[in-house]
Each structure stands twice: as C-alpha cells, then as structure tokens.
Amino acid sequence: MMARAMNRRPVMKINLDAAAESRRRPDDLAAEEPLEIRLRQAPLAVTMRTPGQDIDLAMGFLLTEGVIRTAADVVTAQLCAGTDTPNTYNVVDVVLGADVPPPVTDPSRNFYTTSSCGVCGKASIDAVRTRSRFDVAADECTVPARVLADLPDRLRAAQRAFDRTGGLHAAGLFTAGGELLVMREDVGRHNAVDKVIGWALREGRLPLTGHVLLVSGRASFELTQKAWMAGIPMLAAVSAPSTLAAELADEAGMTLVGFLRGPTMNVYAGTQRVTV
Questions:
Q1: Which helix (H) or strand (E) holds 48?
Q2: Whether residue 120 lies in the annotated active site
Q3: CA separation for the pair 107, 33 (Å, rounded)
Q4: Less packed terminus of the chain by CB within 10 Å, N or C?
C-alpha cells in the first residue's frame, strides 16, 4: 500500500540561504483520504486517514470504542466499493456476530474523526470514556529506562513513508525487552494506534500484557484510552502528555512516559514499571 500512502506533486522549492534560489521539483505528500466504517452497510464512522491496513484500522477503532471485545465478535470485515470514480475502496463494511449488541449512537451524529483531533460527534461527555475489560493495574512488567531510551530511534528507523513525506505520525508496539513487533504510520496519530491495535486483535494477542506502545508526538486522553482498551500497561510519547491523559493513566493503573528523547524522559504515572 506504499503507493497510496503518498502522492507526488510539483512544488516550488525556495532556499533563502542560496541567494534566494527557487526551483520547481516533485515532492512526496502523505496521502489523506476518508474511510467510512459501516456495520452491516449502515454508516457508523468516517475517519480521515492514510490508506493502508484499513481492516486493522476498522477493527482497532471498533475495539477501542467498545463496540467489540474480541476478534470473534466480527463475522466479516471487508473493503467495499465506494461511490468514487475511479474506485478507491474507501469503505470497510463489518458484520458483527448475532450476539454482539450494536453500538448506541444517534444516527444523525455518528462518529466523525479527523486526522488532527480524533473522535468527534459523540452524543455526551460520558460517552467519551469507555472502561476497559482488562486489569492493566495488575500487570507487573518492568522496563529498564535504557530500553525506553532506545525506542524512539527504533521507531524512527522503521518509518519509510515519513522518510519521503515528513508528514506522517507513527505508533509502534514493543516488547518489554525493546523488540519492535509492529509499526504503523498515518496522518492521524489515533489512526496509527488503531492500526497497531487492530493488528494485535487479529493476531490474537490481546491483552497486550507486558508491552509498550510508543507514539510520535504527544500522548492525549484518547490515545491513553485506546492503550487501556487493548490491555497495554505502558504508553510512551516523544512529546508531552495532557492532564487528562495523566489522570486516566492513574485511574487505569497504566504507566505514562512523556518527553522520551534520548537519555531523558518524564514518567507521569505508574513509575514502578520503569527501572533505573
């Protein structure tokens, strides 16, 4: 899916340090297209994402929003033909098991997610918070601080699309020993996380006991919630966390690490899992 993850566009490149030199050249842009998630052909959500791993994205979204609990809750999930010409296959249709209750949503205000802000359009503040079925607080894994310090470089080394566009976020799932299991890129950080969690769900790996989820950029409430829903005990971010992310990590018993840059980091919650 690398071809659809980016598009080439002519640009005028200006360099003020080279005698105001300007020239035209092709440049790679990160692709952003809408993906509609349907349940039995009924629209549920639209997310602006980078094409690729769309089934994993849909599965991860349904899990982290509390619609499904296991992969067995999904009978089929398939890319469908949309209305675009030529067809871009920007629709995923999911059929849930007969015993899986449908999500409670207002048909006039279904989920809408953007690449920048994540889920919008929920009917109430209470609906934003979904409790996980996994007891993350009971996870006794520990990760040496020196292992955590190496993770951003390992994640960055796997970002092939970012190398060409400079415009994609990344999420990576690591073992407690620092092994990168899967990395996903997307214009939306929350989409990259859903793609990682959807992969783990389909691989039968949930709960992700003893694992670390690393995200480029900041750690928001939404990303902390998604990690909790997947049973991940540790969320690390290259940038800062928000107040709600730290509060939710405390509530869930998760470890939250921010400003993970080289040998320095801040541990905002669950300090017992980071060893020095």
A1: strand 42-49
A2: no
A3: 23
A4: C
Helix 221-229 × helix 189-202 angle, to 10°: 0
Which residues in the chain are classed under CATH 3.40.140.10? 136-275
pTM to 2 decimals? 0.89
Residue 264, pLDDT > 80, answer yes
Q: How far is CA 149 from CA 57, 135, 180, 263, 265, in A?
A: 28, 26, 14, 6, 8
DSSP class of residue 276? -
Confidence of residue 122 (pLDDT cuts 50, 70, 90): low
- Contacts (Cβ under 8 Å, ≥6 apart) of 44: 37, 38, 67, 103, 105, 110, 111
Query: Which entry of 80, 117, 120, 141 is annotated as an active-site residue?
Result: 117
Amino acid code (one letter) for 272:
Q
Does residue 138 have a pLDDT over 90?
Answer: yes
Q: Which fold does the domain 136-275 belong to in CATH?
A: Cytidine Deaminase; domain 2 (3.40.140)
CATH 3.10.20.10 fits 33-128, yes or no: yes
Alpha-carbon gap, residue 153 to 79, rounded angstroms? 34
Distance CA(188)–CA(194), nearest Å, equals 10
- Greater confidence (98 vs 124) lies with 98
d(CA 47, CA 33): 8
Task: Give yes or no for residue 124 having a pLDDT over 50.
Answer: no
Single out the residue of 96, 91, 102, 99 nearest to residue 74, CA to CA: 96
The pLDDT, as a whole number, for residue 54 is: 96
